[in-house]
Every structure is written in structure tokens, then in C-alpha cells.
């Protein structure tokens, strides 16, 4: 999702890269300039009405000229200076959009809206490319101007008259709750997928008996979410009505024992039992963890059907199960690949020096696989933040709520109110974990 | 754990009064479609350096790895200090044996120091003791601890990495070392230096060493005894001089090749060949501690029939004749 954060080249190599990197900056500037020729806003009489597209020129603002100049400068600079100029461009972009919205909404009714149009979005793409170019030359420092500029714009209220922000103003409380739900759902699913995926990935490296793990997790990802919900709904509904919590816990306990006993005699059967138990544990654990993390509270009701403990055919339970299964592939695949990539010589040396299998795993294999495992976590996290949007389909809430409602009512600004934070969150988490991975590699001495 | 190996009760005295450290008894290793070892019998005396020599694929590595049970024989028994290794705790057995492999196998996520003290850590030595010991070992293999201790393996040259591998194997002071082509991956000058230093170390430490190599010169240079193998069997087990002087089979003869006579000279010390100086001091000389092969090379390079021998201060104190060298080379043939 984010640009590849290759470490910036060392000092001495800079001149070698100049001619190669210039095209990226040129592309950014070109996009930014083209954007200035396109309409930035669609001015509508109400949030669901059609409107007229408006460009940035010809209504008395000097900002378009200033922004055009900044883009030209971005094209011919590089590194930190380029980053700084891009920061100013962001500032100009926000102020220009705000000013234009204020200009065209002036004198219109309360219900009039200024929705975002292609020029506005194209500028975003230009910034993305531009900051990428700046980062390649100047490193992380070149990116600092971005959050600063955005913060300034927010403090100045530059976006306040733009469509999605006006939606936000009227949905504020619900937005906070859904954002919280979204994060809690995604975090729970990622935690579960790591808890389940780590052992599965390790098992996948342990011989032919576990060769099914990779294809199965891969297959899970190909099931459309709607189909998965359709499958889960009757199963979970039956479970939630017909099974009491203490029965479920007893089944888990007895089943665990039975699996251990079965393992020696009937490996295949034991595996099947273990998987079904694992699924049950996953559902209960997921719902409770989400209860702890989310805004809706934790419910555990002994002596009552599972539905009283939060397991239902719709809502968080099926959403979490689906999200966890989707997130499994990147985790399992990276654990597997990471462990497979541990040099044979290191394992041989460890074994030969008298490490027990457990010591070999924790002291050699796991640390060496960790950077890739973290990559898997990164993939799982950004993927999950994105697809948690579908949780709203089955009544679990989250930012998908706005997307769904917006689509239903034809209010594009409301769709964006859900979509923009999702994209932003995914980018932030992705970048954060990428940097964490970089730091980890350095600390482990593997570059 | 090392203690257990040392206080083994049933040591077997050899006629020469030495003790057998490692004994292979009819060791066979069969894979589904291939027999890698076809009944190997071999005894390694305590404190000796024995090389397993032979062409690639003849089973050297396989045989070596039966000692620390990285490979379990299909048949036969391996004894370490008289004890059947199969009856020993696998992990404890391995901690008591130093192990060096060709690809070195340093742990890339650990510093040189951490790599070196892996076994003491497994053995539960306290922090101060193992740190001090590891530094001592690094110094012993010629790596200044202050410079190298905190480096990562990727910051080392091939030769340095190999030294760390050796320091790591020696760190817990195991009586037995298994080394699988330890100098195979370094350039020839470095390899020679490593060999020299390893010989010096071995002179002090007197470990029992089983050393795999496919390099004839290396084997001749460092071994007390050479075990020459071919397709899973021992062809000849002898001192380098015996092996070079009296190859027992056609395979041995062809493996040693035409340079075996010259190689033989590389194990003959000059001492026995030196004669008092005549009236004329030869114009060129070799060190007293050199081998007959060096004197021979010197004669080849400079021409002439006599080469001087100088003491450690550089004074020429004797001489060696070409005839004596030729005779030494052809002795017992
Ligand atoms: N796991 C295995 N399965 C089948 N054959 C093997 C296996 N491991 C080694 N071999 C064979 O055993 C022979 C001896 O191998 P090795 O001891 O590694 O030879 P080397 O003398 O070069 O060290 C080789 O021919 C090799 O192909
Ligand atoms: Mg080998």
C-alpha cells in the first residue's frame, strides 16, 4: 500500500541516483499541475443531490498560482528541501480547497454541500508520489513536513466546509463509536490470527502431515466475505441458541483431553477434533477479547445460552471469525517462509553444539525468522483494517457502517467519511510496522 | 557434561599405552537407495589429530556426524571413551564435543562474543565466567576481543569467521573436536595460516580431533594419522609418512598421485639430514625448523646440490645435500 521504504542511499552515492530519481519528482509535479486544471469540488444543493463541478481558477484566489509555483519547485529539488516544499504544497492544497468550498457555499442554504472532485484527489496522489521521491533522497526527515502541514490545516479548520467533514460534524458521536469498533475488531482479529497462525506456520514446516496448512489458509482467503457470512450465520445462530456457556467450556476441556489421548492412536481424527475445538475456542476468545477492547463491553453469562455471552449469528462473532480467517494467510505464510529461510548451517551448528529442539527454535530459528514474521503481521494488520469494513454488512459496525449507509442513501460524502479513515489507518499501521521491522533487523544484526 | 565424558570408566588401553578416544565398530549407514558407510572400523587415540580424507561423497561427513549423533548409524557402534554414544544423552553428548563445520554456521543474529559462548550458556555457566572464557578463546584464536567481540558475523572476513567458529568449538573446553572441512571456504594463503595456527594450538591443547578434508596436502601437513576413505570404506589408516611411503591399495596410490613423494618430504624434518658445514658455506639457506620439502624447493629454485641450514638467529650452521633429500624421499619404497 505505502511506497516501498527502501533506506535512503548513502551520501557518496547520491549523485549517481540523481538522474534516475528525477523522473519520480517530475511525475509528482506533473500530476499536481494537471490536478490544477481539473475541478476540485462538486457543489450540490444537498448531500444527495447532483451538482456542478468547479475548478480552482477564475474566482479570485491566488492560491492556484502559488501551488503551481510550488509544484515547479518540487520538480527541480530533491531530498529534504523537496520534502519541505511538499509540506508547503500540502498547506496550499488544503487552504485552497477550504477557500473554494467557502466561496461556493456562500449564500447557499444550510443543506448545500461541497463534495470532493477529481482534482482534489489527483493532488493527493501527487503528494504521495512526491513524498516518495523526497524520502528516497532525503530519508525519513523529508516526511516530517507532512504531519506538520496536516496538523496546521486541521487547527486552521481548512477542511471544515468540505463534504466529508460536514458529514463528520453531524455524525460525530457515532463516528467515534464506529472508529473504536473498527479498531477493536481489527486488533482482535489480528491478535487471534497471530495466536493461531504462529503455531500453524511452525507446524507447516514440520513434515508432510501438516502439508495441508498452507493450501487451506490460502483457500480461506479466496472465499468471498458474503458467502462466508452466509455459511457462518446458521451455524453460529444454532450454536448461540442451543448451547449453554458451561456446556461449551466443558466440551472444550474434555475435547482437549480426548485429543491428546487420540493423537497417538488416530492422528487424523484427533486433528479434526482439535480443529473443531480450536474454532469454538476462537469464537469465544474472539468475542471476549473484543468485549474487552471495544466500546460495547464484555459479557459472560454462565448458565445461559451462548447468545448471552455475545456469540450470535450476526454481529461481532461472525465478523471476527471471518476477519481472523482472512488474516491467517499472511501470518502463516510468513512464519513458514521465515523459518524455511533460516540457514541450514546455523541449524546444523546449533544442533551439533547440543541445543535441544526447543532451544534451537527459540534461540536460533525464531529470532532469525522474526523479521519476516513481522512482515506477515504487517500484511495481516493492513489487510484486516481494510476488510473490517465488511463487518458492517453483518451488523458488527465499524467504519463500514458509513460506507454502507452512504451507498444506500447515495451520499458520497458519507461513504468517504468511512473510507478515508480506513485508508489512513491502513497506511499509518503499514508504515509503522515497516519501520519497526527495519529497526528489528538492525537490532538483530541482519540488514 | 564434559566431566561425564572424561570420567568414562571403561577406557581401552592400546598396546602403545595410549587410550582410545573414539572407536568405530563396523559402522554402516544406509539410505533408501544408497549405502554411505559400508562397515567402517577405526580407532582414534586420545590427543591425536586424525583426518578423514577421501574424494567427495565417500562418506567422510557421514562418518564424522555419527560421533555426535547428528547421524545415527544403521548398523554398528560408535564408542566415545569406551561408551556407546547411543546410550548417552544426545544433548549432553553434543555439548561435550566441539563441532566446526565448513560453512561455519555462525548465528547471524548474535555477536562474535555471543556466538562464542553458546555452549557455556547451554551448560549454564555463570555470566562472568563464560564471558571471560569466551574472550580468552577469541584471543587464543588470534582475534583481539576488544575489536571483535561486539561485531556481527557479517562484519567478518572468511578467515575471521572461521576463527570464531574454532573459538566457539573450544569455548567449553571439550576433549574432542569434530571438524568438517573447517578451512575449506577460505583462500589458500589464509588457509595455510589457519592451518599453522591450528597446529600450534593443537600442540598446546592436545585435543582429540577428527578432521574431515578432501585436501591431501592439508591432511599430510596436520595429521597424526590419516584415514583415507573410498565409497564408504576405509582404504588405509596410517601415519602420513606410512601412507605416502607405502600405499596399500591401487586406489590409495592413485589418490595420492604422482606428487606423493614430494608430499612425503613435507613431513620429514631437516634434523636427520643435516651435515656439518664444509669449507664453503652454501650461498642460500633454509631455516633449521623447516621440512625437507622446503630445502628441496630451495634447491629447485636456485639450482645447485647443497643448501645451507640456518639457526633461529640466521646463522648458517649446517647443510643438506640433494642426495640425502632424494634418499629420504625414496626410503622404504
Ligand atoms: N540423506 C541422504 N540420503 C541419501 N544419500 C545421502 C544422504 N546424505 C548423504 N548421502 C550420500 O552419502 C554419500 C556420502 O556423503 P558425505 O558423507 O556427505 O560425503 P563426503 O565424503 O563428501 O563428506 C554421498 O554420496 C551422499 O550423496
Ligand atoms: Mg563432506
Please characterize this protein's 3D structure.
Chain A folds into two domains: 19-163, no CATH class; 172-241 and 310-444, Orthogonal Bundle (MetI-like fold). Helices cover 72% and strands 3% of the residues of chain A. Chain A has helices spanning 14-37, 63-76, 79-105, 118-138, 145-156, 163-204, 213-222, 225-242, 245-265, 267-293, 316-340, 344-352, 357-387, 400-409, 412-444, and strands spanning 41-44, 51-54, 113-116. In chain A, α1 runs antiparallel to α2, α1 packs antiparallel against α4 and α14 (400-409) runs antiparallel to α15. The longest helix of chain A has 42 residues, at 163-204. Chain A is flat. Chain A starts with 13 loop residues before the first helix and ends with a helix. Chain B is of the alpha/beta class and 333 residues long. Chain B has helices spanning 2-6, 60-67, 90-95, 112-116, 118-122, 127-140, 145-148, 158-170, 188-205, 216-222, 240-245, 250-256, 260-265, 292-302, 322-330, and strands at 20-31, 34-45, 49-53, 75-80, 83-84, 97-100, 176-180, 208-213, 225-230, 233-238, 285-287, 306-310, 316-321. In chain B, β7 (176-180), α9 (188-205) and β8 (208-213) form a beta-alpha-beta unit. In chain B, α6 (127-140) packs across α8. Classes of the chains: A mainly alpha (447), B alpha/beta (333). At the A-B interface, α12 and α13 of A face α3 and α5 of B. Residues 31, 34, 36, 54, 56-62 of chain B line the site of adenosine-5'-diphosphate (ADP).
Amino acid at each position: 500500500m505505502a511506497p516501498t521504504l527502501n533506506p535512503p542511499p548513502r551520501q557518496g552515492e547520491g549523485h549517481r541516483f540523481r538522474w534516475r530519481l528525477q523522473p519520480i519528482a517530475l511525475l509528482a509535479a506533473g500530476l499536481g499541475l494537471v490536478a490544477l486544471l481539473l475541478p476540485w469540488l462538486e457543489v450540490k444543493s444537498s448531500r444527495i443531490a447532483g451538482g456542478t463541478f468547479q475548478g480552482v481558477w477564475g474566482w479570485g484566489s491566488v492560491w492556484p498560482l502559488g501551488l503551481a509555483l510550488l509544484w515547479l519547485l518540487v520538480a527541480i529539488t530533491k531530498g529534504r528541501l523537496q520534502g519541505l516544499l511538499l509540506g508547503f504544497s500540502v498547506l496550499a492544497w488544503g487552504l485552497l480547497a477550504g477557500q473554494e468550498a467557502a466561496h461556493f457555499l456562500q449564500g447557499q442554504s444550510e443543506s448545500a454541500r461541497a463534495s470532493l472532485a477529481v482534482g482534489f484527489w489527483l493532488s493527493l496522489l501527487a503528494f504521495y508520489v512526491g513524498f516518495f521521491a523526497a524520502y528516497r533522497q532525503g530519508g525519513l526527515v523529508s516526511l516530517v513536513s507532512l504531519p506538520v502541514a496536516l496538523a496546521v490545516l486541521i487547527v486552521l479548520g481548512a477542511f471544515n466546509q468540505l463534504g466529508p467533514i460536514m458529514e463528520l460534524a453531524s455524525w460525530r458521536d457515532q463516528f467515534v463509536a464506529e472508529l473504536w469498533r473498527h479498531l477493536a475488531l481489527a486488533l482482535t482479529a489480528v491478535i487471534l490470527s497471530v495466536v493461531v497462525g504462529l503455531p500453524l506456520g511452525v507446524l507447516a514446516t514440520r513434515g508432510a502431515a501438516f502439508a495441508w496448512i498452507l493450501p487451506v489458509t490460502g483457500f480461506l482467503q479466496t472465499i468471498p466475505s458474503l458467502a462466508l457470512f452466509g455459511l457462518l450465520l446458521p451455524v453460529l445462530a444454532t450454536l448461540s441458541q442451543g448451547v449453554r456457556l458451561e456446556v461449551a467450556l466443558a466440551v472444550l476441556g474434555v475435547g482437549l483431553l480426548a485429543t491428546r489421548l487420540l493423537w497417538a492412536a488416530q492422528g487424523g481424527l484427533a486433528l479434526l477434533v482439535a480443529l473443531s475445538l480450536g474454532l469454538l475456542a476462537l469464537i469465544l476468545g474472539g468475542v471476549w477479547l473484543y468485549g474487552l477492547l471495544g466500546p460495547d463491553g464484555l459479557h459472560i453469562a454462565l448458565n445461559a445460552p451462548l447468545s448471552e455471552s455475545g456469540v450470535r449469528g450476526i454481529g461481532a462473532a461472525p465478523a471476527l471469525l471471518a476477519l481472523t480467517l482472512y488474516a491467517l494467510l499472511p501470518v502463516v505464510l510468513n512464519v513458514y517462509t521465515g523459518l524455511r529461510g533460516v540457514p541450514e548451517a546455523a541449524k546444523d551448528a546449533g544442533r551439533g553444539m547440543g541445543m535441544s529442539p526447543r532451544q534451537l527454535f527459540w534461540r536460533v530459528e525464531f529470532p532469525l525468522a522474526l523479521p519476516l514474521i513481522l512482515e506477515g503481521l504487517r500484511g495481516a494488520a493492513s489487510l484486516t483494517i481494510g476488510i473490517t469494513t465488511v463487518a458492517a454488512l453483518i451488523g458488527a459496525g465499524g467504519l463500514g457502517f458509513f460506507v454502507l449507509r452512504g451507498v444506500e442513501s447515495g451520499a458520497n460524502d458519507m461513504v468517504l467519511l468511512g473510507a478515508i479513515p480506513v485508508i489512513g489507518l491502513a497506511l499509518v499501521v503499514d508504515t509503522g510496522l515497516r519501520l519497526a521491522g527495519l529497526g528489528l533487523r538492525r537490532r538483530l544484526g541482519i540488514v | 557434561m564434559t566431566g561425564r565424558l572424561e570420567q568414562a570408566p571403561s577406557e581401552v588401553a592400546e598396546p602403545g599405552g595410549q587410550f582410545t578416544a573414539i572407536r568405530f565398530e563396523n559402522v554402516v549407514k544406509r539410505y533408501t537407495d544408497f549405502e554411505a558407510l559400508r562397515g567402517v572400523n577405526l580407532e582414534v587415540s586420545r590427543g591425536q589429530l586424525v583426518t578423514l580424507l577421501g574424494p567427495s561423497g565417500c562418506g567422510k561427513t557421514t562418518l564424522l556426524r555419527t560421533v555426535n549423533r547428528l547421524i545415527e548409524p544403521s548398523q554398528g557402534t560408535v564408542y566415545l571413551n569406551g561408551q556407546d554414544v547411543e546410550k548417552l544423552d544426545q544433548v549432553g553428548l553434543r555439548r561435550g564435543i566441539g563441532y566446526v563445520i565448513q560453512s561455519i554456521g555462525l548465528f547471524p543474529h548474535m555477536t562474535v562474543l555471543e556466538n562464542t559462548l553458546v555452549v557455556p550458556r547451554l551448560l549454564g555457566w555463570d555470566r562472568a565466567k563464560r564471558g571471560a572464557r569466551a574472550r580468552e578463546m577469541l584471543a587464543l584464536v588470534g582475534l583481539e576481543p576488544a575489536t571483535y567481540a561486539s561485531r556481527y558475523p557479517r562484519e567478518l572476513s572468511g578467515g575471521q569467521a572461521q576463527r570464531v567458529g574454532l573459538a566457539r568449538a573450544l569455548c567449553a573446553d571439550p576433549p574432542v573436536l569434530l571438524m568438517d572441512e573447517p578451512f575449506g571456504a577460505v583462500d589458500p594463503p589464509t588457509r595455510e595460516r589457519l592451518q599453522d595456527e591450528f597446529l600450534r594450538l593443537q600442540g598446546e591443547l592436545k585435543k582429540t580431533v577428527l578432521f574431515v578434508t578432501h585436501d591431501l596436502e592439508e591432511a599430510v601437513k596436520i595429521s597424526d594419522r590419516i584415514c583415507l576413505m573410498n565409497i564408504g570404506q576405509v582404504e588405509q589408516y596410517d601415519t602420513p609418512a606410512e601412507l605416502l611411503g607405502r600405499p596399500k591399495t591401487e586406489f590409495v596410490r592413485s589418490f595420492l598421485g604422482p606428487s606423493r613423494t614430494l608430499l612425503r618430504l613435507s613431513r620429514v624434518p631437516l634434523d636427520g639430514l643435516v651435515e656439518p658445514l664444509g669449507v664453503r658455506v652454501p650461498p642460500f639457506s633454509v631455516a633449521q625448523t623447516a621440512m625437507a620439502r622446503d630445502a628441496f624447493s630451495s634447491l629447485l629454485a636456485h639450482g645447485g646440490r647443497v643448501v645451507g641450514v640456518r639457526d633461529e638467529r640466521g646463522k648458517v650452521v649446517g647443510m643438506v645435500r640433494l642426495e640425502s633429500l632424494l634418499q629420504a624421499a625414496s626410503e622404504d619404497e
